[in-house]
UniProtKB/TrEMBL annotation:
It comes from the Eukaryota. Residues 1-19 form the signal peptide. The chain crosses the membrane at residues 29-53, 65-90. The keyword Isomerase does not apply. The lineage of its organism: Eukaryota, Metazoa, Chordata, Craniata, Vertebrata. This is Transmembrane protein 185A. Pfam families: Tmemb_185A. Keywords: Membrane, Signal, Transmembrane, Transmembrane helix.
Length: 111
């Protein structure tokens, strides 16, 4: 319960920082700072996944947050113009990485 509350508070902080960054065009903080709560959510989600798997709980949000850490990092770098890839290549690679990590974490269906 406490881990879920922590995850939701960090997601709320991310939403507030995104709204602040979008509202103020000349904002001092860069997108990497805006994404910091999401970077904190991912290790916390891994801990929640381990706890949930040990106690046979259903987890949806925690799995998605834990496998998308690379996508969060790449989106922040792309928005700060540190990475100059095209968006099509960028989205395709991030989705491929996230999908493969999701399958590794959730396990393949048995035949």
């Amino acid at each position: 319960m406490l881990i879920a509350v922590g995850i939701h508070i960090l997601l709320l902080m991310f939403e507030v920082l995104v709204c602040d960054r979008i509202e103020r065009v000349t904002s001092e903080h860069v997108w990497l700072l805006v994404f910091m709560p999401l970077f904190s959510v991912s290790p916390l989600s891994v801990a929640a996944c381990v706890w949930g798997f040990r106690h046979d709980r259903s987890l949806e949000l925690e799995i998605m947050c834990s496998v998308n850490i690379l996508q969060f990092i790449f989106i922040a770098l792309k928005l700060d113009r540190i990475i100059t890839w095209s968006w099509l290549f960028f989205v395709a690679k991030c989705n491929q990485i996230s999908t493969s990590m999701f399958h590794l974490v959730s396990g393949f269906p048995e035949k």
